[in-house]
Sterol desaturase family protein (Polaribacter marinus), 149 residues
Amino acid sequence: MIYALITLGVFLLMECVTWLTHKFVMHGFGWYLHADHHQPKYQGIFEKNDAYFIVFAIPSILLFYFGTYTSHTYLFFIGLGILFYGIAYFLVHDVLIHQRFKWFKHTNNRYLKGLRKGHKMHHKHLGKEEGECFGMLFVPLKYFKKPKI
């Protein structure tokens, strides 16, 4: 049970890590890798921004290794929480929001529509300044409200 809680806790903590990384690294000194992601049209299947998947995968892989081959089993489950967040990030960000894969084109779920709206507000800024809504799975409640008619 403790390992499931560790995995869940790390998964939730990764939203904070992602927010901080997105705001201060991707929109800071790491803008070089993230800039093409803010352009209206992708030039190909991959973009430089995809390098951040590798950046986040490395600690997860190392934690799997040290959690498996040492007596510190809990490290494996920390790595698992990071992996699960990476999978959720891929499904939400690349599949649902940016439609890089056409798997969930016609969703009518209120939560998912709110995530899309929040991320759309993030992308209205093409530069690294004046960004908003840096999270992925938790965005401000205002994006979930139905528009007044």
Notes: The CA atoms of residues 69 and 142 lie 46 Å apart. The chain has five helices and no strands. The first helix runs from residue 2 to 29. The chain has a mean pLDDT of 82.
